[in-house]
Input
Amino acid sequence: MNIGLDMMGGDFAPLEAVKGLHTYLAQSAQPANIFCIGDEGHVKNLLLDHKVPTSDIKIVHAGQVIDMHEQATKAFKEKPDSSIAVGFHMLASGKIDGFISAGNTGAMLVGALYSIKAIAGVQRPAIASIVPKMNGSTGILLDVGLNADCKPENLNQFGLLGSLYARNVFDIENPKVGLLNVGEEEGKGNILTQAAFQSLKENRDINFIGNIEGRDVFQDKADVMVCEGFTGNIVLKLAESLFDAAKQLSIDNNFLHRFNYENVGGTPVLGVAKPVVIGHGISSGNAFFNMIRLAEKMIFSNLCGEITEKFRP
Amino acid sequence: MNIGLDMMGGDFAPLEAVKGLHTYLAQSAQPANIFCIGDEGHVKNLLLDHKVPTSDIKIVHAGQVIDMHEQATKAFKEKPDSSIAVGFHMLASGKIDGFISAGNTGAMLVGALYSIKAIAGVQRPAIASIVPKMNGSTGILLDVGLNADCKPENLNQFGLLGSLYARNVFDIENPKVGLLNVGEEEGKGNILTQAAFQSLKENRDINFIGNIEGRDVFQDKADVMVCEGFTGNIVLKLAESLFDAAKQLSIDNNFLHRFNYENVGGTPVLGVAKPVVIGHGISSGNAFFNMIRLAEKMIFSNLCGEITEKFRP
Output
């Protein structure tokens, strides 16, 4: 198994990527082959400094970097030697089986959607956030930002994409799918959710349990929570802010610790043909460690293959 | 000043309304005249039990009650002697200057929109929630559920309705208005918020500060936070669930206590011609106390008159 890791992405690049890689190699009995993509000299020195066993990894030189604030489409086109462009080139040509970056999110999406492309039958790929549940389990919320405007059928497809992700990566058998809405009863909601409810209800490939409300997000009512990317993004960022709030208030609590987005392992781009994982700019070493594990699990469980199978038109 | 209080509304009626009234009378130097609307015998006995000085209040008998789960429009029409219908009749005819109920929300909205009616120029009345801010101040989020689908101009009007509410009731001079969105920069968002941004930017009657994100909801970036009722309702219910979560986790904290919706003093229906306050079904005595104070402040500050003035077509 070959995984490409962008060493130049994130606010603390390449240090935190190196730390995450170190943890991953130390904790894995059979680690994947990691291709470290970035400035060769800089990366090699840091790997040596951190005593990362370089025999287990390969460094792929990329002489350019796409900055966090560059216009994504333009930068992706005009910087073919950037770590992100090199990574997608390797992924598209089969040299790696999955690609991870905490770099420019827009450029990662451009690469995922235009270089890797959506799986046939998937109308709109989505990004998903994990949501800590009060009972200790993990839920999935999608879309959290890729599709600010959606059609009912998009939400229906998110139900299936999220279900396959929950089963393959989080080992949730028969995940409960809930439609995020403003009331529990069928018929509640805006024009979009009223129509999406009908599609989800008729979808035989998922375990649809009906509407859920804002108060159910942290409860275990649904494992997969479906919404358009506008609401999802607001809920995600609000939830992330709770961790900062807890820190400010000196509240030390395990549940709130699980909101620490510095540690969260990024989001896959669900519905594109190969495993792509996008990290938060603020990703810590622990986040990089979790992203490598996420990519590993996506590849190992053949998530993209299963999505391809289920969405075959 | 005459305020009508529905004694039969809420999960613990009429007990919690009596407790709230008792606190209000005890704490007010110059209390308003309170008209207690409900079953006369039942209410009178409870008032005596709780040593509420009945000289300061008037009991208005209403022989019917609209239950929490009744179909609102039908019940409002078919139960003219219900406490809610009697209250709106008194409000419409000028016998009271404001009306409060924690009863059937739908029936309260029917009364507000069809018996009291929207102020000329207000396209869509809205309901607003108060949002505790980390710095101790109070923000306002609207709409939180009345309008699941909105047009850009509706959001623009919510900016002005919320500003007048913030100034008149919460004494916030020149309140900062933020548009709840998925990015900070102009141009971000879904079709609705992209268009609403332009209207808000051109609105000379408000202090528009631009987009805010989910992470800004509990920060003091904006005093008035504008969104359609779908997103607002999900954010509100999610925020309310934080208080339950904190209780479950045995986290005792002043900031989280401010999320205790049992104590929150209801929401006004902003944009209708007279003060109407709707309470949570679960309202405690303290919530009723806060609702009476809210109605008092709305009447005293002439909020509806100012809205009428500002929206005059």
Observations:
- The longest strand of chain A covers residues 126-132.
